[in-house]
Please model this.
Amino acid sequence: MQLIGAYHLGWVEADGSAADSSATDSSATDSSVAGGRKAGRGVPGARNGDDGGTAGAGRSGGGKLLRPGLVLAAAKAVAGPGTAGRAVLSAAAAVELAHNFTLLHDDLIDRDRTRRHRPTAWTVFGAENAILAGDAMLALALRLVAGELAGRLAECVIEICDGQYDDCAFEQRDDVTLDECLAMAGKKTAALLGCACALGASAVRAAPAAAAALEEFGREIGIAFQLTDDLLGIWGDPVTTGKPVGSDLTARKKSLPVVAALSAGTAASEELAELYALERNFTELELRRAADAVERAGGRTWAAAEATARVARAHAHLAKAPGINQAAVRDLRAIADLITRRTF
Model:
């Protein structure tokens, strides 16, 4: 299982040889996100030559490092610079491991064959082995944190699973509402970003009100993240996303821009519904028609505007958070702003 986990994280190739990280690691364009690279240092269980046993939290083979970066930035916002002690770093590593547990399972559920510009773990090592590797990552995550932090992370994972259940159920329905999709995204995606902020704050003994405000900040940027992710799933450049053109449309995903378009009640909405009802793979022309229909029905415009609005709400949570050094929240604000600008 160690080989599978290391392959998924981008440390090694399928044969165990060292991976070329320069070929995949294109995401750490912001220093606040790159701060997640510190998460593995000083954590027990390091492999020889690694920063730490959970250095995957900072070297996820092209992973965005957003979640461990949020842990570190939240701790800094509460306690100031230089506060990334053992508890904070362990929480950051745990959050990234929990995130990668979800990715290993999600790739299999969605039958995605590509992640981070190379074959997904289940296509290389088999479905059963990928599931077990994901389970092991979750166990490692929970082992890294203790007490209240472990309980909080466990609650978050349950919420994520509930969101994934809803996501799967929506694929079998033609009457999914936009409110239902937003609620699902709140569980499947935003919960872990909120948890990351809460864990970072709690690791430095923040007041409950401050931790709660930071969690709400994380949840809001989590929705913005999902909206941006959904836009990239339709219009993103495969060179930077690592996924095929229009991958979400090909999979008939009920993503937020798609559901917004289907709910618009326009001729373009009807065209999109007819295309989604096809019981075969899209031709290249049909894929372009589907993307165009989403845009003409307003799905693209709505999703971009909603993402911007969510980031504004996130900033408002920071502004009113009690006991937080407003001069020390620069990293959190930078992460929030990066969410809607990213192309990866």
Q: What stands out?
A: The chain has one domain: 2-8+30-42+67-341.
